[in-house]
Specification:
Strand content: 35-45%
Structural class: alpha+beta
Order of helices and strands: EHEEHE
Radius of gyration: 11 Å
Oligomer: single chain
Length: 75
């Protein structure tokens, strides 16, 4: 299994809606609203690094997501 931490910058008026949608996705193991440069952090667990790419590409299409940063686990 591959793990990644995704940091999301979200439009302020859409943070709650985006958070609600993301925390229910099957690959999301943990979702947090956070303060600082990013607004939401997700821990995902998938089968392959290609699945990480596919996950990120799919959520980037969601209305309200302004930018993402992906940190892939080294273990």
């Amino acid at each position: 299994m591959e793990k990644a931490l995704l940091l999301l910058e979200v439009s302020p008026q859409k943070t709650d809606a985006v958070y609600g949608k993301l925390k229910g996705l099957k690959d999301v193991k943990m979702a947090m609203k956070i303060y600082g440069r990013f607004d939401i952090a997700l821990l995902i667990e998938v089968n392959t690094t290609k699945d990480i790419q596919n996950f990120v590409l799919s959520i980037r299409k969601m209305p309200g997501i302004l930018s993402t940063e992906t940190l892939i686990s080294a273990d």
